[in-house]
Amino acid sequence: MASGVNPPPMKILMLHGYAQSGPTFYAKTRAFQKSLLRAFLPTQSVSFSYPTGPHRLIPAEHPSFGHEKPEGEGADTYGWWNRTSDVPIIYTGIPAGLERVAETIRAEGPFDGVIGFSQGGALAAMVASALEGNPARLLPSEYRLSDEVDGICRAVCPNGLVQPPLKFAIIYSGFLAIDSTCTIFFEPKIKTPSLHFLGQLDSVVDESRSRRLIEACISPEVVVHVGGHFVPSQRVNMNALAAFIRICMEKDFENDGESGKK
After folding, report:
1. Which residue pairs, CB below 8 angstroms and at least 24 apart, start in 96-99?
2. Which of 45, 126, 141, 188 lies 20 to 30 A from 74 at CA?
């Protein structure tokens, strides 16, 4: 990074887990936020956006409550999609979940990176994939997150900027969405720099499911923490997170500087 030149503010999209919401995920990650802010201030400010999934969950109406093991029930429980069948695995409502992300990008973007937890981690990988704009990855129109311009890859934000490919994707207790309609997101593999956190005591998302997502990424980095199904905020985990983000952001900042010299 050039000496004496501070990078622009960093904006991170935060995607909650199944049976959570933007506000509940915000509350659960307050310590996480403070630690990340301390890692970058005063040289760089960081802001977080917490959208809520479009599907409100009611146990009697959604068998997926039993499949995904939600953290809680009540009025503030939402999902990005629902799992309606085990054999074969079928997800419903994914286009609406993707559109909610596109709405957030149009209203609050562009974003530098995405952080997702559990189902939100699975979605984070899909969003990173869609934003790469890889011509070999022919996403159907309903999976492009938007009918405007050419999908989320070119979504116009309020300041007139275009949402570029993400600089990083951080995934906590994520998993590969294995509905047959989702395979297009992972073929070819995701090239966005990714960091995956796995909990040794996670009893909700089996490690094999998380490993399948890791294998769908190019050069992923993996941190295994001693906890369960949550976003860890202990110093050792936050140091790994901050170091990874800093490398991704500095690399992009330096590339922009080189481009400006040409």
Report:
1. 96/54, 96/55, 97/53, 97/54, 97/55, 97/123, 98/123, 98/126, 98/127, 98/130, 98/142, 98/143, 98/144, 98/145, 98/152, 99/54, 99/145, 99/146
2. 126
